[in-house]
Design a protein that fits this description.
With about 350 residues, the chain is of the alpha/beta class. Helices cover about 15% and strands about 25% of the residues. The longest helix has 30 residues, at about 325-355.
Length: about 350
């Protein structure tokens, strides 16, 4: 157990209130109980400062406790409460499980496999010929590792992960349950009779260091060459990465998004949930794409935020959205104006005919 003062010191924050308050856990601000640490990063959640049961909350430096009738016994003011809360969580995270070293008796490991030092290979895992498993890596039960796969040091493959043949994983790669790395790319050539011929998918997938891939995500092998996920990138649940895609460094892609074939996503991109990115385009570095957007052309302006369908600069999309809400009224007004114009034209024509008959 640590104190609020300890937390302020750990996070290099400004302590306001009682530094001796004991903290035993973390929780959401609206659910926290006495003895817990919470955070408020956005002004719309500041209302919870009065009603939270937390003993300490992390807040922005601009937070003004005098606006509230009651606040927790201690506050820690920070430049970025959200990121700081992540650091604090690590103090309370469960200790890493020490998996038994060695190969479970039920695992099927080919005699040609090279297994590094201090590895753990769980029950019913299957490791095919000529695979290489780096030092300190953990292969959970029911994982399938194909022939000639190379897995680096300190990797963790959770249950039911599949790594198809010849794919390469760097160091400290984490792959959550059910993910498939190196499944065939979606390549089918139409034939004259309306059926399809499968295009052999001869390439591989390369996952660089410090990548994490969440549950049930699929990264397809290249038709030729590589599909590559670069260093530090994080892919959420049920993300689809198609053949020959390249995802840049430190990019995050949220759940249910898809990137079509041969597209290149830049470094430090932030892709929201349920985003669809079409094939054979690119995004530059430091791009953000709002959830639910459809990206059908290359995004070539670094640092921009895009949203909508098709994706446009967010400021422009907001204007379009605002205008679209008025469309029913605008259509009614246009019809009324059209009727008035028609009546006015008829009146002018009648006056002209009357003048001409005199």
């Amino acid at each position: 157990m640590i104190t609020a003062k300890d937390i302020a010191t750990l996070l290099d924050g400004e302590l306001v209130g009682d530094g001796s308050v004991q903290i035993s856990g973390v929780a959401k601000v609206e659910e926290a109980q006495p003895g817990m640490l919470a955070f408020i990063a956005h002004p719309k959640y500041e209302k919870y400062a009065e009603i939270t049961g937390a003993s300490c909350i992390l807040v922005n430096r601009s937070f003004d406790p005098t606006k509230f009738t009651k606040v927790p016994p201690s506050l820690v003011k920070l430049d970025d409460p959200y990121s700081s809360f992540v650091i604090a969580i690590e103090k309370f995270a469960p200790k890493k499980i020490d998996f038994p070293k060695g190969i479970d008796s039920s695992a099927a490991v080919h005699s040609s496999v090279k297994v590094g030092k201090n590895c753990s290979i769980g029950a019913y895992a299957v490791i095919a010929e000529n695979a290489v498993i780096g030092d300190n890596s953990v292969i959970h039960p029911h994982v399938v590792v194909g022939r000639d796969v190379k897995i680096g040091n300190d990797c963790v493959l959770y249950p039911s992960v599949t790594i198809r043949e010849e794919c390469i994983l760097g160091n400290r790669v984490i792959i959550q349950p059910g993910a498939v790395i190196g499944g065939d790319g979606f390549g089918f050539a139409p034939k004259k009779d309306g059926t399809y011929r499968k295009i052999p998918q001869l390439g591989i997938v390369v996952i660089e260091d410090d990548v994490e891939i969440q549950a049930n995500t699929c990264v397809d092998r290249a038709t030729l060459g590589e599909t590559r996920i670069k260093r530090g990138t994080k892919l959420d649940n049920m993300v689809q990465i198609a053949h020959n895609v390249v995802i840049g460094e430190d990019t995050v892609i949220a759940g249910s998004s898809g990137v079509a074939g041969s597209t290149k996503v830049g470094n430090r991109n932030m892709i929201g949930g349920a985003v669809a990115i079409t094939g054979h385009i690119f995004t530059v570095d430091d791009v953000k794409v709002a959830g639910g957007s459809i990206v059908s052309r290359s995004l070539d302006e670094p640092g921009e935020t895009y949203s909508g369908y098709p994706a446009k600069k967010a400021a422009k999309w907001r204007k379009i959205e605002a205008a679209s809400r008025s469309l029913p009224e605008m259509i009614t007004e246009m019809r009324e104006l059209k009727e008035k114009l028609h009546a006015l034209e008829e009146e002018i024509a009648a006056l002209k005919n009357s003048s001409a008959s005199r």
